[in-house]
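Table S2 (continued). Query chain:
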Amino acid sequence: MSDSKKVDEYLLKKAHPLDREIQLVRSIIMDVDPKIEETIKWSSPTFMYKGNMASFFMNAKKHVSLMFHKGALINDDSGLLEGDGKEGRVAKFSSVEDIEDKKEALTNVVKEWMRMQDE
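Corresponding output:
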């Protein structure tokens, strides 16, 4: 079974109240580049490109929470990434409309991660 199928099955079983929003974020990230992979890691859907890029925080119920593991290193002029931790940063999405509003910023953050990993 492919890792994307494992993510599909995981999300189906999880029956998260924001599944539609999670699927939209997932689609946006996977559409950035075909070299991006996804799997289940740390009991969560995780995106990878030459390392662990980002994981959903599945316990959040009022918004979609996507943690960029090394988000502190990503140049994000949009303000999408929140937090002041040593390494991680979080992108939060409250609705489909919020995701659509932040789509360009999310795409740019993913592209920046890939650029950094390619250097």
